[in-house]
Write a structure and sequence with these properties.
By secondary structure, this protein is α+β, with helices and mostly antiparallel strands. The protein folds into 4 domains: about 120 residues, Tetratricopeptide repeat domain (Serine Threonine Protein Phosphatase 5, Tetratricopeptide repeat, Alpha Horseshoe); about 270 residues, 6 Propeller (Neuraminidase), CATH 2.120.10.30; about 90 residues, Carboxypeptidase-like, regulatory domain (Immunoglobulin-like, Sandwich); about 110 residues, 60s Ribosomal Protein L30, Chain: A (2-Layer Sandwich), CATH 3.30.1330.60. Helix content is about 25%, strand content about 30%. The strands form 8 sheets. Strands 6, 7, 8, 9 and 10 form a 5-stranded antiparallel beta sheet that branches. Strands 11, 12, 13, 14 and 15 form a 5-stranded antiparallel beta sheet that branches. A hairpin with a 2-residue loop joins strand 13 and strand 14. Helix 3 packs antiparallel against helix 4. The radius of gyration is 38 Å and the shape is elongated. It starts with a helix and ends with a strand.
């Protein structure tokens, strides 16, 4: 009996030992996949399998963290954020856990949460460069998240799939080449690094505006069994330069640039040959060829860089013979990663980077080239940049107007998606109304003239209700609008349009008063409101000058009219004194008008004293004020 019990105990211990070894072996495999081979998707499956069988293992805290790390490296930031939270709740002690958690919150667009995570992390790691940069990025993003751009974007839903589409190039007016990890009906092959298929090249034809169709694989041997992507095209020589990773057997970790010629009559690509400059010790990828086909820009982690991947350039000096690479320097490259360059003529370089203050992940930047010198990078702001990765910017054949870029932002179709961008149609107009100053009634058929500072002239007539509108006016332009009504003094107003990003109407509602109250050309006296003088003086007050400036404008716009300025006093004081005072006041108005450009021959000053009282038996200040007035009368 004792012998049987001993044997049974031995078997139980042996089975427990075997199970423990199996668990340990599974965890070792997962760690090997993650740390040695960087096969994050394979490692993820192995960690999850271990966790399913060993939920209460002493290793479970670390495994939770490793699952988060797998998701982070696969750019599945929401899943990573969730598993980092689990690891933190369990009290897992990992120095970078909080920083990585903050990074994932940025990518998810949770800037407030990320900000708190980085502030907490920096209390114990105050000099951590990446964390300090990300904290500044949170503040930058919160400050600039409502940026209004000249451009709009559109997800190319007819091209994108649940997989990744990236690395665009536009050939001619209506063809796009891009890379995709989609399953296309052939034997499924998956990249253990990403969990998706290996990327191949596809092309698509553009139908109507921003509508791409007829997606199909490129013809010819440019597609290999492993990752092919990010092509740039030299139209002069009909040569495409592109990235190929993993070699011919899938075991190579580095990427190289290859070139292939497009045989246009058959739309077939020739057998690729490796670029004259590559090195097995580092990656060369994301090529962009200059317009003349002589300078190739690319990203590389080669020695001599600033850190991570840098942008370099080489110059062609022979048939697939190139100069030694030149690093683009501190204006472009950082300790982070700079990738996906795009050279636009000889005036600007566009690229993606996670090493500058930005919105999160990879942001797109523009560097102007002045006298062949690279200027400081400028963040391209939304809609180009988001909290996620934004990269692969290219112009179409209409530079500055439209093009493509890639992003894995939230609410896309799949992982990396292709987006088109285009200048937002901005309709700017100016409108107002013309009425009779005395009656307030609309003045129809008034000729309205809009003169731009660049000499452009637009004309229209007011409608029966006195309204007018000028459409299609320009941004950042000084305009003069003139109203010329039959039987009325002409009038004008000046306004300046802003750098409007959205459609806008310049009118009274938008704080641009373009309404007109026209003075009728009449032999009757017309009151000029708000003309005031110092007590017992002919000196004009500042308030009076404002009204007279309006009169200056009217007289300048109606140059063939001669007028008299008639000044009246109240009945207080001596008759002779009032007559003299009124004449001086009328002359003060004339002098002001002459000083401001009105010919004296067009003006006459007449003082009437108290001879033409409006309120003849004035008994209070209000009635006396009615008598004190300056009037305008058309003489000719």
């Amino acid at each position: 009996m004792h012998k049987k019990i001993f044997i049974l105990s031995l078997l139980i211990m042996l089975s427990m030992s075997i199970a423990s070894q199996a668990q340990s072996s599974l965890l070792t495999k997962a760690d090997t996949s993650f740390f040695k081979y960087k096969e994050y998707n394979t490692a993820l499956e192995q960690y999850q399998k271990f966790l399913k069988k060993n939920a209460n293992s002493s290793e479970s805290k670390r495994v939770h963290y490793q699952i988060a790390e797998c998701y982070r490296n696969e750019n599945k930031f929401r899943d990573a954020e969730k598993w980092y939270e689990i690891a933190m709740e369990e009290g897992y002690d990992e120095p970078l856990l909080l920083a990585n958690y903050g990074e994932m919150m940025i990518l998810s667009g949770n800037y407030f949460g990320a900000r708190e995570a980085f502030k907490k992390f920096l209390k114990t790691n105050p000099t951590h460069e990446r964390a300090n940069l990300r904290l500044k990025s949170c503040d930058f993003a919160l400050t600039n998240q409502n940026y209004v751009s000249d451009y709009s974007i559109l997800n190319l839903a007819e091209v994108n799939t649940p997989a990744s589409e990236y690395g665009c190039e536009i050939i001619g007016k209506d063809k796009m080449i891009f890379a995709s990890t989609r399953a296309d009906g052939s034997v499924a092959r998956f990249d253990n690094y990403t969990g998706q298929g290996f990327s191949d090249f596809y092309e698509s034809a553009q139908g109507t505006e921003n509508n791409w169709r007829n997606v199909k694989k490129l013809k010819g041997p440019v597609n290999t069994d492993f990752n092919d992507g990010t092509m740039t095209y030299d139209p002069t020589n009909k040569v495409g330069y592109f990235t190929q990773c993993n070699g011919t057997n899938g075991k190579k970790e580095n990427c190289n640039v290859f070139l292939s010629t497009l045989i246009t009559k058959d739309n077939v690509w020739s057998t690729p040959q490796i670029l004259g400059y590559n090195n097995p010790d580092f990656s060369v990828k994301h090529p962009s060829i200059s317009r003349d086909g002589k300078t190739l820009y690319f990203a590389s982690d080669m020695e001599g860089g600033k850190g991570g991947a840098d942008i370099w350039k080489i110059t062609k000096i022979g048939d697939n013979v190139w100069t030694a690479p030149v690093n683009l320097g501190n204006n472009v490259n950082t300790v982070g990663n700079e990738m996906f360059p795009f050279i636009a003529g000889d005036t600007a370089l566009y690229f993606a980077s996670d090493g500058f203050i930005g919105y999160g992940g990879l942001d797109l930047y523009k560097v102007k080239i002045v006298n062949k010198e690279l200027q400081k990078p400028v963040n391209m702001y939304p809609p180009f940049n988001s909290s996620a990765d934004d990269f692969g910017f290219v112009f179409s054949t209409n530079p500055q107007k439209d093009g493509l870029f890639c992003s894995n932002r939230i609410d896309g179709v799949g992982d990396d998606d292709i987006y088109s961008f285009f200048l937002t149609p901005v309709d700017i107009s100016a409108s107002g109304k013309v009425v009779d100053q005395k009656t307030g009634k609309p003045v129809g058929k008034t000729k309205m003239t809009l003169l731009a500072e660049d000499g452009t002239i637009m004309e229209t007539l007011t409608e029966a209700d006195g309204s007018f509108v000028f459409k299609g006016i320009k941004k950042e332009m000084l305009y003069t609008v003139t109203a010329s009504g039959d039987g009325y003094f002409n009038d004008k107003k000046v306004f300046e349009t802003e750098n409007d990003k959205r459609s806008k109407i310049y009118n009274k509602k938008s704080n641009y008063d373009l309404d007109f109250s026209l003075l009728r050309l009449s032999k009757e006296e017309i009151a000029i409101n708000n003309i005031y003088y110092a007590l017992n003086s002919a000196e004009l007050t500042d308030e009076s000058r404002t009204s007279l400036n309006k009169l200056v404008t009217i007289l300048k716009e109606t140059p063939n009219v001669r007028v008299s300025l008639n000044s009246h006093t109240d009945a207080q004081g001596d008759d002779g004194y009032n007559m003299t005072l009124s004449q001086k006041r009328a002359q003060s108005v004339v002098d002001y008008l002459v000083k401001n450009g009105i010919l004296s021959s067009r003006l006459e000053a007449i003082g009437h004293g108290e001879t033409q009282l409006v309120a003849k038996d004035a008994s209070d200040d209000f009635e006396h004020q009615l008598n004190r007035r300056t009037m305008l009368k058309v003489i000719k």
